[in-house]
Structures are given as C-alpha cells and as structure tokens.
C-alpha cells in the first residue's frame, strides 16, 4: 500500500470523527432540553411550556458549542499556518 493512500484514508476517518463530534455537540443539548422539558411538563404543569423553553435553551447551547469548536479549530489552523510560514522563511 502506498503511503499517500494511507494518509488520505486516515484524513478521511479523522474528518468523519470531527463531523460526528460536531453533530453531537450541537444535537445533544437540544435533545436533552427536549426530553427534560417533556418530563417537567408532565411532572410540574405550569402556565408555560417547559419543553419549548428548554428546547430553545438547548438550541442556544448547541449553537454555542458549535461556534466555540469552530473557533478553536480555526485558531489551531492559524497556528499551523504560522508555524509553516516561519519554517519556510
């Protein structure tokens, strides 16, 4: 097996893993808010909907997690580019 094809396969699976992480970082808070809200609506019925409130909170947290992850990855990429530029100079 050529080394180049192994690197491409490794990068592919690394990308799949990152997509999986990103998905769960954004979906898990939404699902948690949804299920917790439904439980609280059944257990403590009030004049407002726990489900909608916690679903909205979960969506905000999910998008914040996504934003934070992307900013960290962007900073890592910037540092790698700077290191490469210094090495090439």
Would you give an account of this structure?
The chain is an all-alpha fold and 89 residues long. The chain has one domain (24-88). Helices cover 90% and strands 0% of the residues. Helix 1 runs antiparallel to helix 2. The two termini are 34 Å apart. InterPro entries: ATPase_put. It comes from Thermatribacter velox. Keywords: Membrane, Transmembrane, Transmembrane helix.
Short overview:
With 89 residues, this protein is mainly α.
Outline the secondary-structure elements.
Elements (H helix, E strand, L loop, with lengths): L2 H41 L6 H39 L1
Helix pairs in contact: 1-2
Protein name: AtpZ/AtpI family protein
Pfam family, one: ATPase_gene1
Keywords: Membrane, Transmembrane, Transmembrane helix
Mean pLDDT across all residues, rounded?
86
Instruction: Give the proportion of residues in helices.
Output: over 70%
> What is the oligomer described by this structure?
single chain
* Annotation field: number of helices: 2
Number of beta-strand segments: 0
* Shape verdict: elongated
Secondary-structure element series: HH
Distance between the termini: 34 Å
Tell me about the largest β-sheet.
none
> How large is the radius of gyration?
20 Å
Beta-strand residue percentage: under 5%
The figure for the number of domains is 1
Low-confidence stretches: none
């Amino acid at each position: 097996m050529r080394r180049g094809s192994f690197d491409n396969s490794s990068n592919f699976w690394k990308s799949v893993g990152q997509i999986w992480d990103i998905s769960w970082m954004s979906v898990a808070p939404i699902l948690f808010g949804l299920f917790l809200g439904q439980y609280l609506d059944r257990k403590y019925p009030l004049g407002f909907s726990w489900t909608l409130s916690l679903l909205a909170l979960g969506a905000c947290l999910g998008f914040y997690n996504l934003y934070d992850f992307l900013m960290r990855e962007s900073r890592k990429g910037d540092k790698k580019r700077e290191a490469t530029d210094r090495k090439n100079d």
